[in-house]
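for the record, two folds in this file. i put them one after another cuz i was lazy. first one right below, seq on top, structure tokens after. the second one comes after a little note so u can tell where it starts
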Amino acid sequence: MIDVYIKNGRTIDNEPIEIAIEGNKIVAISKKLQVEAKKTIDLQHKSFVSSGWIDAHTHCYEKMSLYYDQPDKIGYLKGVTTVIDAGTTGANNIGDFYNSAKKAKTNVFAMVNISKNGIVRQNELAHMEDIDGELVKESIQKYPDFIVGIKARMSKTVIGENGIEPLKKAKAIQKACNGIPLMVHIGSAPPTLDNVLTYLEEGDIVTHCYNGKENGILNESGEIQEGVWEAYHRGVLFDTGHGTDSFNFNVAKQAKSECFICHSLSTDIYHRNRENGPVYDLSTTMEKMLSIGYSLKEILPMITDHPAKMFHLEQKGQLKVGFDADITIFNVQDQEKTLFDSNGNEGTINQVIQPIYTIVEGETYEIGG
């Protein structure tokens, strides 16, 4: 007898799917299974089943004063099985974050900030002495199953007078740490986006790619900059990182019209933009992509397979036998809804996404209906 049997579900292609879970692993997948289970979830052919949603840019270390939240409030309660904290903590406080994250029902991973104290102030990279590569390396060695990347925020409010130097240090740290994934926040210049992209290599991640700032991905003519295309084609990865100030409908629409498609869809969520908007949760961010013309079939890999591969989460991101039993079950309902980007622009949709079950490593949580 297996532990959990998901019965009469649908894939995003409207194909029937049933899944058997034993412990924390998927043990069988088929259009129809014949199994006995301790718990059966009968979806009556109405609900969609996907690999567990991964939010690749969050801020969920509760003890910070600027950007913070509780992992479960942005995680399993919202249909998200895995959250990745994007550099809230540095080497000096990531150990405490690790200990608190273990208490969450949601899977929690972290990027360690190259600044040793993390985002304790807005300009955490204004003092170069706060960047200690040896401390970062020691943290990664101490928490190899928790730290999945490093983070550098490269915008004028963060770097002070240091220009591109923090990014140079980040790349040196990355090299010393066996090429661990690097996520780079972009915002207002200096440094210019072109300057930042010059240093990035295949597999490096640019977050806030659809922001509406002058130093964004569009040129003066409103088209994707040549340097952005060059980075895209050489394998630099682009993440949305919606956030309070970093998602613009017009930029995202233009990018789609030119087939410049972000690799991962993330929220940059923390308690204020969760409680007051414009982010709210990952499903709302998905709805915003629907509003500019993406299909759910295009969106789902951005919150499952792609971020899992970006951060080397080898047992997550896909519905496969032997993979972790991280599963999101959701409905799509006909309902008109008005959405807002970070700059107050409006978008509308006629369908909303409603997660109803979150399964995290085999543990089942009913969250809606």
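(here's the note) second protein begins now
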Amino acid sequence: MIRIDILTVVPELLESPFAHSIIKRAKAKGLVELVVHNIRDYTTDKHHRVDDYAFSGDAGMVLMIEPVFRAIADLKSRHNYDEVIYTSPDGAQFNQKEANRLSTAGNLLILCGHYKGIDHRIREHLITKEISIGDYVLTGGELAAAVICDSVIRLLPGAMTDESSALSDSFQDNLLAPPVYTRPAEFNGWKVPDILLNGNAAVIDQWRFEQSMDRTQRLRPDLLE
């Protein structure tokens, strides 16, 4: 089982992503313990304020060091974490290889960035891994945290009905997945490739590999480098 703790200033944003589909089933099976914590619970400010102006005078508010430090310290006093992750647009680009690695962890702590970011001293002294899900900026790191959790949890043994399905996903072997089809074999004059209907598993596997190579070369040649 893996435990994932998430620190956020907007816990409500994570309610729906974690209440459905594979994540819901994985939680019900006891494969993952997913706990969302409100950083505001760790502030001493009577108005539950957790942000302040940047010393640099830059526009935008910054998550204050004290409540974030207290939150991380509290969780670390109760659990040993394999990684303390910060979601940030300038972190390392998240990919399937990293999802595979994190899926073998015991405990993960994810700190969601918000506002203009967090006091940099947290990043310097407490964060072990910074992750970005793309070269763009979101309102906060909650959606990024949900993406990371989804990609990791679906890889846990028993999370998917057909565990072999994850092995043929795009990026698992640095190739894009081949095209997939289902019934009917012909619709609106559009036909499923005949090779998929002949029942020859070896021939179909070869076709799938060739299709993966072709799609990767055309759409994501960088993966083959």
